[in-house]
Design brief:
The protein is mainly β. The protein folds into two domains: 41 residues; 55 residues, OB fold (Dihydrolipoamide Acetyltransferase, E2P), CATH 2.40.50. The protein is built from no helices and nine strands. It has a five-stranded mixed barrel. Strands 1, 2, 3 and 4 form a four-stranded antiparallel β-sheet that branches. The structure holds zinc ion.
Length: 107
């Protein structure tokens, strides 16, 4: 089990937890102790936006795993709620289910 939460509930809304770099401004996910761009240890945990666009998707059995570019910048690997193959570029919204990073179409 990871020591840091990938997401938290804030005001009843699930929010992915990223890290904002105090030196170069990059936002990474998941939050790490060092910046993925410049290596700086000056990292602040921030809420990511809940929306993003699908950059790639792969069918795994009856399900679809996607790389999603969040509006706040970082890329997140997550599962689609339905097994329907969606178009690259589709907007999705974060909707976690238990420990799974899951996304639903953003309508
Ligand atoms: Zn940095």
């Amino acid at each position: 089990m990871a020591s840091e939460r990938l997401w938290i509930l804030r005001n009843g809304q699930p929010r992915l937890q990223g890290a904002h770099c105090g030196d170069c401004g990059a936002v990474s996910f998941p939050a790490r102790h060092g910046c993925i761009v410049c290596g700086s240890a000056v990292q602040t945990i921030v809420d990511l936006s809940n929306r993003g666009k699908i950059e790639s998707r792969t069918q795994v059995g009856e399900r679809i795993v996607c790389e999603i570019r969040m509006e706040s910048g970082p890329r997140v690997m997550g599962w689609l709620e339905s097994g329907e193959l969606v178009d690259i570029g589709s907007s999705v919204e974060f909707a976690p289910h238990e420990n799974e990073l899951r996304f639903v179409p953003d309508v």
